[in-house]
Amino acid sequence: MYKVFYNEKALTLTDKPVLTSKSLQFNTDSQFAEALAVLRNSSVNEINIYHHNLEKLWSQFKSYFHYLEAAGGVVKNKKNEILFIHRLDKWDLPKGKVEEGETTEIAAVREVQEECGINNLNLNSFITITYHIYFQENMKLKATYWYEMFYDGNQTLVPQTEEGIGIAEWKRIDELPEVLKNTYENIKIVLEKLEF
Questions:
Q1: CA–CA separation, 160 vs 69, rounded Å?
Q2: Which residues are 97's β-sheet partners?
Q3: Which of 16, 30, 72, 169 is 20 to 30 Å from 60 at the Cα level?
Q4: Angle at 112 between CA 108 and CA 113, to 5 degrees
Q5: Quick one: CATH architecture of 70-192?
Q6: Is the pTM here over 0.70, yes or no?
Q7: Three-class secondary structure assignment of the chain
Q8: How does pLDDT run across 68-96, given as a tens digit for each residue?
Q9: Alpha-carbon distances of 41 from 9, 36, 87, 125, rounded to whole Å
Q10: CA distance 16 to 24
Q11: Which residue ranges does the chain devote to CATH 3.90.79.10?
């Protein structure tokens, strides 16, 4: 299954219909536009498109959009706090576009360093990939590769204001419920994969 968010609503791609949402059997690319229009213009929060060959469906879906990759990190420190940024009135995790010639691992570390002003991160394990669709000149499908990282330094966090980041801040585990009230669905998915 692939779960893609559009305006914080879910579009799932599966090999069988999902009974808990509006399901469409895939026949033509126009169904992608139809599904996005329903998510954009109605109270429906989830749509499922299914096809017996899920990888073929995913390939068709990816080719419908301008596809790009990003990478980011869930950074923990010695106090077991997690590094968050605040941008566009939401709490987020540091991430950014993978540049040409970069691996997702290198991009993830570079983006965390740039967005939060810290160095000497230790890259740990891969967490997951999240997907979302947004409009910027055309419809874009962004895949974000997430990694666990550890920071044992004591540099002062410096938010990258030219990227619209107002705050870079360590959050305690007991502060997560408050953060989760004001973050993106994809960030919730990433954090759910981790043990604290």
A1: 20
A2: 70
A3: 72
A4: 115
A5: Alpha-Beta Complex (3.90)
A6: yes
A7: CEEEEECCEEEEEECCCCCCCEEEECCCCHHHHHHHHHHHHCCCCEEEEECCCHHHHHHHHHHHCEEEEEEEEEEEECCCCEEEEEECCEEECCEEECCCCCCHHHHHHHHHHHHHCCCCCEEEEEEEEEEEEEEECEEEEEEEEEEEEEECCCCCCCCCHHHCEEEEEEECHHHHHHHHCCECHHHHHHHHCCCC
A8: 999 999 999 999 999 999 999 999 999 99
A9: 11, 8, 26, 39
A10: 10
A11: 70-192
